[in-house]
Amino acid sequence: MNFKITTLSAAFLLSMASLSANADETCASPYMAKITGQEDFVYIWTLGAEGVGDEQDKLVTVDVNPKSVQYGKVIGSLSVGGRNEAHHSDFTDDRKFLWAGGLDTSKIFIFDVATDPAKPTLTKTITDFVAKSGGVVGPHSLYALPGRMIITALSNNKDHGGRTALVEYSNAGDYIATYWLPTDSNLEGAIKSGKYADGYNYDVRVLPRKNLMLTSSFTGWSNYMMDFGKMLADPEAMKRFGNTVVQWDLSSRQPKKVFDVPGAPLEIRCAWDEKHNYCFTSTALTSKIWLIYQDEKNEWQAKDVADIGEPAKIPLPVDISISSDDQSLWVNTFMDGKTRRFDISDPFHPKQVFEQKIGAQVNMVSSSWDGKRLYFTSSLLANWDKKGADNEQYFKSYSWDGTKLIEQFSIDFTKEKLGRAHQMRFGAYSLYGKEAKVKL
């Protein structure tokens, strides 16, 4: 199904460009309601682990307000049943509901976080994502548009490879449309600018003022559910990674141009300043920072602009976080457990200015809007996490004073019998006109 939104809807999307600075986590959708000031909670979408607690995927709530008597403590853990390869989550534009996906079962769990932000409740589980979408598997990024959720997926139910699509839902959880990624055999109306049109997918971000949507690319179910060591030793498996970023028309959901970005480009982070028409991504296998930018002819281009660590050692860049002033980019590398800060004041020439080891492995990083607080989690994928003593599973909070990271607290998710800590989202009472029920 190739759904085209109405002219009225398109106009509404474009009119929302003035909201481009309204987000607290700097990776959040520009359409999303904003936390002003200190976040109260971090919600951590957590993979169940065999032999750990109830072994189920769960949404874990941690109190992160320094004024709270429960600061640095787990105050809630809501299990969803089974292990689904819990991965990413995000809020609807009104921030009342948090959607969380499972890469293995393709289930989507919808949590009410507005009624009591300290105690999310599971209100709906979408179990027919594959059937409704026409065979799309592995919901990954869940990204807020006005009244809608646009969902990237990683695979399909025909060959479990990387050929896949974007899927659109209403905030109420009703399926709307599927948009397949361009391939060599069917470019879906897009222009192929280089060697690749692989049809792979991973992340999605938008610049409404430019009517721009970008998607990146990773790998399919047959790879991301495989043991990491086995995959690395399989030459055929290593060929099954994405090498593209796709430019889309945001209002029509039409793919416009396919860029070569070799080496599995993962997270996309776009500049916030209305004069900065560019976004960044990093490549997991080639350890590069890439810039997607608008040139002097108003055409979008892709350029390799920096190395991350020593690419030959494959540090495996994973999550990235851009600062709200567009001056810094935090880049996590899974294999060496480090976070690196790049000065991106000149986006064409990022320079590494800081690095620190966070743990034996590190995956996600989330930054507060003011840049003073950073949070880190450990798990990449259940079958890709390290083994033995290096399989550290944690949630860590740091302050940043402009020159150094200072650890505030750390929670051992294995010791607490919670599982593998993966992705984070912020919550606050202030979003819903509520006051803290816990005395501060």
Could you give a short description of this structure?
This protein has five helices and 29 strands. The protein is mainly beta. The protein has one domain (7-432): Methylamine Dehydrogenase, Chain H, CATH 2.130.10.10.
What key attributes describe this structure?
440 residues; mainly beta; five-stranded mixed β-sheet; 5 helices
Detailed description of the structure:
With 440 residues, the protein is mostly beta strands. It has helices spanning 7-15, 129-133, 221-224, 228-232, 235-238, and strands at residues 41-47, 58-63, 74-79, 86-91, 97-102, 108-112, 121-126, 136-145, 148-156, 165-170, 175-180, 191-192, 204-207, 212-215, 244-249, 254-260, 265-270, 278-283, 288-294, 300-307, 317-322, 328-333, 338-343, 351-357, 365-367, 373-377, 394-400, 405-412, 420-427. It has five helices and 29 strands. Strands 12-16-15-14-13 form a five-stranded mixed sheet, with no helix packed on it. It is globular. The relative contact order is 0.15. The model is unreliable at 1-23 (pLDDT under 50).
